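Thread: quick sanity check before group meeting

JM: Hey all, I'm pulling together slides for Thursday and realized we never actually wrote out the predicted structure for the chain we discussed last week. Dropping the sequence here so it's in one place. If anyone has concerns about the input, flag it before I start.
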Amino acid sequence: MHISRITIKKFLKKILNKALYIFKSFLLNKLHSCEIQTYCQIELNTTVKNSILEGQNKIGKYSKIETSRLGMFSYCGEFCRLQNVEIGKFVSIGSNVKTCFGAHPINQVKMHPASYNPDWKPASLTTKRYFHNDHKYINNKYVVKIEDDVWIGDDVNIFDGVIISKGAIIGANSQVRSSIPENAIAYGYPAKIVGYRKIEGNQLHS
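JM (edit): ok, ran it. Output follows.
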């Protein structure tokens, strides 16, 4: 079987480009204490720290994933900031999606984090000495939960304590402050439920 020089050159060029991409990934990406269980596509200039990628995941350029878990086949677009979030399988997350933390206790005199968060730095060493902890501080590993088959559009902010249930859709440019039920369609600032998905002609919810 005759193989032309052009075919060989194309093949070698493809291998070289792939090797160069992998080399750049090691140089530009920041991967710290991660568990990557099978193949994932991590774009350049991304940071993944203390997280688990179950496999077949894709993380867009300039995104930062920290203390989170991504289920099989789930992906996020560019410029995402996802922290302390548990993401199920087959979840589609657009670009510039962020988890937002820092709800302050408005029912007590002192609202500064040093007054209720014993791990807050730089005041962590003196917090217990000067403050009485009236606000219940919850230090869970995963504070936001996104269940299987969820679709989240671009430019969405998700606040701590939110659960986006299975099959829900969050429209672009939304602010999610409260949990979203299964198969609901929600959008807005703040996000409000506007309907429910229909599958194979049968309405899932009345």
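AS: nice. The chain is about 15% helix and 30% strand. The helical segments are 5-28, 127-130.
JM: adding both to the slides.
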